[in-house]
């Protein structure tokens, strides 16, 4: 067990004082529990079965995974990825632009050998297992010793339970339904930052670099590595990202140059920024200002202001040995600051809820009702599907009433409210400590 070095004020510095997560040990224990293996494999196997059945009866499964597959086939055929708003290999029910970097098309090549529906089934299976991995790593990263965690008396059982419950979160089931890769990218980042990098491996940061090459938003975790003192890992991550872009420049120079000079700034290829599904500051500002020409710039300004408390929270959590909490701050800041953060991008609600549940005290509801209510409220936001219940589309969001705007921006407001609560609570605690110190000196 590693021990943290206490800093002034009693706050530990460095790595958390808890046993290192041993994935090999966990897998070894799982291998001798056939019932656990069956339960963990049930949903992934169902995904593959649905994919095969969907292929046989021609179901429309996985709009986004169909686009991924089409991008890979287009790359293999040597055709342009970004010249048109659709790709020739796309099925008629998934005629959408390919908006990812050229590197993504290369990494999606394995999907090209599968029929559209089976590709969706395979992605579903991998996504569910990736979510289970995130939950297991999150549990292993909690700073509280296992002996006093009544919730985690059996990490394997807790992982299975959470994996089933989290399927009810709107970002999770929408990611699976669309054939998106959000759960997979989250698992890659979590595994790198909380396991590989924490152990000081020379491969630290490599997975973050790969995730960033698939979808640019994980680049925010390069900054996270740098801020938390993992400078070598941050360099690794950025180096892998740049290296993959140079590789694509050699393979498909025309598409690569077009992406980085034109496509990357063309948000019209992604969708209307003011649609309710865009739960980012950019979406919020465009909705509340009726698409004012300065709305996106104002969103960047707000994000720049939020970067100050975000960095402060990351450093504070890191110094207290709370690596998971620090990572979540970066993840949610990235979601807020990104020009487009569709509701299914908010799969980071999964480890957030795990963390909040782990912090529920072993006491009665009356003695800790604030934490219980807060945890329930966060879970309710992502389970409720409130974004689907509100009228949206065809610019209806621009005419929402006040209460509709509050509910329609619930994902955005959740991390903002949590930040205010944390900062306020710590400020009050600091004031009380100073008052006690002053009283002691007065004596």
From TrEMBL:
Principal EC category: transferase
Keywords: Cell membrane, Glycosyltransferase, Membrane, Transferase, Transmembrane, Transmembrane helix
MF terms (GO), sorted A to Z: glycosyltransferase activity
Ranges annotated as spanning the membrane: 37-57, 92-113, 120-139, 151-169, 176-197, 203-227, 234-252, 294-315, 322-340, 346-365, 372-390, 410-428
Enzyme Commission designation: 2.4.1.-
Compartments (UniProt record): Cell membrane
Topological relation to the membrane, as annotated: Multi-pass membrane protein
Location, primary (coarse class): membrane
InterPro entries assigned to the protein according to its UniProt record, in alphabetical order: GT87
Superkingdom, natural source: Bacteria
Family statement drawn from the similarity comment of this UniProt entry: Belongs to the glycosyltransferase 87 family.
Protein name: Alpha-1,2-mannosyltransferase
């Amino acid at each position: 067990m590693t021990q943290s070095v206490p800093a002034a004020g009693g706050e530990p510095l460095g790595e958390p004082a808890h046993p290192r997560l041993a994935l090999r040990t966990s897998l070894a224990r799982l291998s001798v529990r056939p019932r656990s293996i069956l339960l963990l494999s049930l949903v992934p196997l169902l995904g593959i079965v649905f994919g095969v059945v969907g292929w046989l009866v021609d179901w429309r499964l996985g709009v986004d995974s169909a686009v991924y597959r089409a991008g890979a086939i287009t790359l293999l055929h040597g055709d342009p990825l970004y010249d048109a708003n659709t790709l020739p290999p796309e099925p008629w029910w998934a005629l959408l632009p390919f908006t990812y970097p050229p590197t993504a098309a290369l990494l999606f090549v394995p999907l090209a050998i599968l029929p559209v529906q089976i590709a969706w089934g395979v992605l579903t299976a991998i996504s569910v297992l990736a979510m289970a991995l995130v939950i297991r790593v999150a549990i292993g990263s909690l700073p509280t010793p296992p002996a006093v965690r009544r919730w985690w008396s059996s990490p394997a059982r807790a992982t299975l339970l959470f994996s089933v419950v989290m399927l009810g979160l709107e970002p999770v089931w929408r990611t699976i339904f669309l054939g998106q890769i959000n759960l997979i990218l989250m698992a890659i980042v979590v595994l790198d930052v909380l396991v590989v990098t924490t152990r000081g491996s020379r491969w630290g940061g490599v997975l973050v670099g790969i995730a960033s090459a698939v979808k640019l938003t994980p680049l925010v975790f390069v900054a996270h590595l740098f801020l938390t003192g993992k400078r070598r890992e941050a360099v690794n991550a950025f180096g892998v990202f740049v290296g993959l872009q140079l590789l694509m420049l050699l393979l498909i120079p025309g598409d690569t140059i077009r992406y980085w000079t034109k496509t990357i700034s063309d948000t019209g290829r992604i969708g209307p920024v003011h649609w309710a599904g865009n739960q980012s500051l950019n979406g919020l500002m465009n909705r509340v200002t009726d698409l004012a020409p300065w709305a996106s710039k104002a969103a960047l300004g707000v994000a720049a202001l939020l970067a100050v408390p975000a960095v402060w929270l990351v450093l504070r959590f890191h110094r207290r040995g709370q690596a998971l909490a620090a990572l979540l701050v970066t993840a949610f800041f990235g979601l807020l600051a990104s020009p487009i953060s569709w509701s299914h991008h908010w799969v980071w609600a999964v480890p957030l809820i795990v963390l909040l549940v782990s912090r529920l005290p072993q006491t009665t509801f009356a003695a800790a009702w604030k934490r219980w209510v807060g945890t329930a409220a966060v879970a309710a936001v992502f389970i409720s599907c409130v974004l689907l219940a509100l009228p949206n589309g065809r610019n209806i969001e621009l005419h929402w009433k006040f209460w509709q705007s509050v509910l329609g921006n619930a994902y955005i407001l959740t991390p903002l409210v949590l930040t205010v609560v944390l900062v306020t609570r710590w400020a009050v605690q600091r004031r009380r400590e100073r008052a006690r110190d002053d009283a002691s000196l007065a004596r």
